[in-house]
Amino acid sequence: MIDDLKQNSTGLPDTQNERDTRGIAINWVGVKGIRVPICLHEHDMRPQHSVALVDLSVNLPEHLKGTHMSRFVEVVQSHLSDPFQLAGFPSMLTSLQSRLDANHASVSMSFPIFVEKKAPASGKKSLMDYSLTLRAKHLDGRCEQSLELHVPVTTLCPCSKAISRYGAHNQRGEVRLLVAFDEPPSLPQIIEAVESSASSQLYALLKRPDEKMVTEQAYENPVFVEDLVRNTVLALRAIPGLKECRVEAENFESIHNHNAYACVEVKLQST
Hints:
Layout: H1 2-9, E1 26-40, E2 48-60, H2 69-79, H3 91-100, E3 105-118, E4 125-139, E5 142-156, H4 158-163, E6 170-181, H5 187-195, E7 200-201, H6 208-220, H7 225-236, E8 242-251, E9 260-267
Antiparallel strand pairs: 1-2, 2-3, 3-4, 4-5, 5-6, 5-7, 6-8, 8-9
Helix pairs in contact: 2-3, 5-7
């Protein structure tokens, strides 16, 4: 290894490259919490700058004492210095394996994304933020990719509407979506699939006509938390390239001192 020769030529000890005699291989070793700026360029989204939190790890054979931590940082810096696209994310795995002479590699990257939305009545534009985590893993010769997306929504209780003479309790909720895929999907399309499954979607900016329209829309479209996860699965099945998903929904209840929760795990395409 050229780097090792360079290090040795300095006369400084290369302790992590020493042999280990305990006979225990380490499944994953690496670094967590590298914070770096990125510029996201997806074809169906406006270019945007964000800050990502990156975790990286590889396997370590039983005969090696330690890994080279600085090389993880070098990989991140080299891959995120240019405009970033989801399609290029797995290439970090290849770099990790090559740079650290590893058989397995794993990368996780979390950052907020922003989607421009128009208020339903006034047409006023605003940016909604969503929490995104990308994960890629190369294990046993296979590359596995997934994304986790947190989407806030509004839900209105069908039971409350059915038993009340007027009104019905409604609240903000959150859908936490984990999707496995082969080809990177459209992030706005996934967000739309989730938001269309709720009573109403959320907006960063609403004028009075918008508030009236959103409130009435939610009242006309009541959903239980169970409806929300089932509706989301059906909407995701219409998006090509998605393999399987885990959909969690949590309603931050407005009239209870607890939250309502539902979760479903299901394959999205036949194998």
